[in-house]
Amino acid sequence: MTSVRVPTADAIPAGRRQLPSGVAMVGTAVAFMSLYLGAGALTPLLVTYEQAFDFTPAMLTVAFAVYAIGFLVAALTLGALSDHVGRRPVLIAALIVQLVSNTLFLVGTDVEWVIAGRIVQGVASGAATSAFTAAIVEFAPNGRKRLGTILAGISLTGGLALGSLLAGLAIQLTSAANTIIFTVLIVLTTLGGITVFASGETVTRSPGVVRSLIPRISVPAAARREFYSSAPVVAAVWMLAGLSGGLAPNIVRSVFHLESAFVGGFAGFIAPAVATAVGLLFAAVPSPTAMSIGIFTSVLGAGAIIGGILAPSLALMIAGQAIAGVGFGSAFTAALQLLIPQVAPGGRAAVVAAVYVVAYTAFGVPIVVEGQLVAPLGEIPAVVGYTVLTILLALVSLVARTRLARHGRTPRP
């Protein structure tokens, strides 16, 4: 949600020792990953908090979803701030906020601490994601900027995947998992902050700080048909991401009756891990093709998840999550690639903001509704209804994009 500026000589303060650009690129990517390691770790940890603090499944979904609120508020208000004050100040401030979040989880004693920690965690991620992405690209060697883009994507989805898997393993192996996880994350985040501080600045300061804090969400007329045809599947794949991150570990316990934190963590790991791989493998796939693949695999994955829950077959459910991960990795990336070229550079941040509003609303709101429906309907009907909705949304995009293709589309990106 920010523009990427080409660094100039004036952007690097003279007389201060700094890391070589290659080291800075990798170090900044690791610091970025530390944000999403923390977000991913909450996937299996929320189930342990539910048991330890004795709160309801409905409250568990609230604790998961408030992250999206913090992310959206921060991304919409602070997402472009680093273009004006520099990358380093924004990144260091965001990592300090992340340290606060990690500390809240480390010392928390009830669900209110968990909810507060999740909101603060969302604020840190929302404030830093665009700045981290831009900084990593800017540190990449000239002529290899695409390497920076790939590394930034891996840091995000790979962090979510590894966070869930390693946290599940820690919970399985030790009773002090919460202390170990957040102590390690505090150390990693601190080291990340030191790395960012030791790296060079990649943009010069510029006026417009106050104006950058005003949320800009708009879709120019030239991009509206593309946006409206893509938005339903974007919502669908982010709902499926919410299922993997917020519901899957609890499904493992309540539907499949497995008290295994590692299996719960693996259930949260598989979709973002596959999405990470897809981001690499689909780099050369034309965006319309990637979008079609994303629609079909999200429908197929959702169907397999439903089949796995009803059978019940844990293997089928996890296979469905893996297929849905293909849908997420291809459809979401394709949506951005199809939209951005339709818009003049000055309006791109507002369009990306609109996409993220769709994404994070779908990530947070439906899962809270699902949590409220568990008590009157039961866990299985609520989850199945939630997943059926993702299929319907993807099919809406299929129909809309078929009509768009028949009536002519804009040139391929």
Automatic annotation (TrEMBL):
UniProt keyword list: Cell membrane, Membrane, Transmembrane, Transmembrane helix, Transport
Transmembrane segments: 23-46, 58-78, 90-109, 115-137, 149-171, 177-198, 227-248, 260-283, 290-310, 316-340, 349-368, 380-400
Membrane protein topology class: Multi-pass membrane protein
A GO molecular function held by the record: transmembrane transporter activity
Primary location class: membrane
Record-annotated Major facilitator superfamily (MFS) profile domain positions: 24-413
Pfam hit, one: MFS_1
Protein localization: Cell membrane
GO cellular component, one term: plasma membrane
Signal peptide: none
UniProt protein name: Major facilitator superfamily MFS_1
Source organism: Pseudonocardia dioxanivorans (strain ATCC 55486 / DSM 44775 / JCM 13855 / CB1190)
